[in-house]
Specification:
2 copies of one chain form a homodimer. Chain A is mainly α. Chain A has helices at residues 5-20, 29-36, 40-52, 70-73, 77-85, 106-122, 127-130, 135-140; strands at 56-59, 65-68. In chain A, β1 and β2 (65-68) form a beta hairpin. The termini of chain A are far apart. The relative contact order of chain A is 0.19. At the A-B interface, α1, α5, α6 and α8 of A face α1, α5, α6 and α8 of B.
Chain lengths: 154, 154
C-alpha cells in the first residue's frame, strides 16, 4: 500500500523546510530536490501546490526562496494527504476499463473506510510533530543543502 | 493511496470465484482475466499465489479449473492484503536512493501505524462478506464468463 510520489515528496519537502528554515538560509526547489532525491521539476510542481495550500511561501530575489508558513508548520499530515491524494479510490474501479462490479461493490465501501482510517491515524500529527528530534537531528546533518553559504548562489 | 495491482486483482479473482463457483461451471485464468480486465498471464501469477495461500485450488483436465476453497471463502480481506502487500513501506524510504531521514523518521512510524489501521479496518471482512448481495447480483450478471457453456471449451 502506497501513497503517491507527489504526496510523499510534499511531506518530505515540508519536513526539510520546517527544520531548514532559519535566518540566513535560502531554500530553493533545486536544493530541496537534492535533499529528497527527486528532480527539480517535480519538486517545483509540489512547491507550487504547497504554495496554493498556504503551507509554504516563495519569495523571489535576494533574501528570497522557499519558507514554510506558520499554517504549514501546524498542518495536519492526515489533512495534507487527504488533500493531495484527492477523493480517488484505493483500487481503480472506473477509468478506461471500469470494473463491472463498481456500481454495487461492498469492497469499494470497505476500501473507502480503510482509506479513511489511514488518514485519521495521521490527522493528529502536524509537520512540527514529525520533525521533532530525533528526526530533527538527522535533518540538521543535511547541512550542505541549506547552509548559509548556499545563499551566495543567488 | 492505492494497493498494488496484484492485491487488487487477487481480491477480484476471489470475489468472482466465490460467486461463480457452482456445479457445472469451469473457471480458468483466462475467464477470470476477461472478467477483471487483466491479462491472462497476470491473473495466472495471482492464481498461483492464491493457490499457495490455500485460498483457491486448481485442477487439471475435464471437470477441472479454478475453485475457491472453504478457507478462501472465510479469508479475511485485511489478512489477505497484509500478506500480499508484504511488510513494505507506505513510501519508499530505502531503495537505490535511500531517504536520508529513513533511520530516525517519525513519519515512518506514523505511516506504519496508518497502514495497520487500513488493514485492521478490512480484517473483519471475509471474501464471503464482500460478495453478499447487492454485489452478488452484479457478479451473476457476468454470466457469460462462467456459464456452463464455457465448460465445453476444455
Amino acid at each position: 500500500m502506497t501513497i503517491s510520489r507527489l504526496s510523499d515528496l510534499a511531506v518530505r519537502t515540508l519536513m526539510l523546510l520546517a527544520v531548514g528554515d532559519r535566518d540566513g538560509d535560502r531554500m530553493t526547489a533545486a536544493i530541496v530536490a537534492t535533499s529528497v532525491n527527486a528532480s527539480t521539476s517535480h519538486v517545483a510542481k509540489i512547491v507550487s501546490r504547497l504554495v496554493e495550500l498556504g503551507a509554504i511561501e516563495s519569495r523571489r530575489g535576494r533574501g528570497g526562496g522557499l519558507r514554510i508558513t506558520e499554517a504549514g508548520r501546524h498542518l495536519s499530515v492526515g489533512a495534507l494527504l487527504r488533500e493531495l491524494e484527492g477523493p480517488g479510490e484505493t483500487v481503480e474501479c472506473e477509468g478506461p476499463q471500469p470494473c463491472p462490479l463498481a456500481g454495487n461493490c461492498r469492497l469499494r465501501r470497505a476500501f473507502a473506510d480503510a482509506r479513511e482510517a489511514f488518514f485519521a491515524t495521521l490527522d493528529p500529527l502536524t509537520v512540527t510533530d514529525i520533525v521533532r528530534s530525533p528526526t530533527q537531528q538527522v535533518l540538521l546533518t543535511l547541512e550542505p543543502a541549506f547552509s548559509p553559504t548556499t545563499s551566495n548562489d543567488g
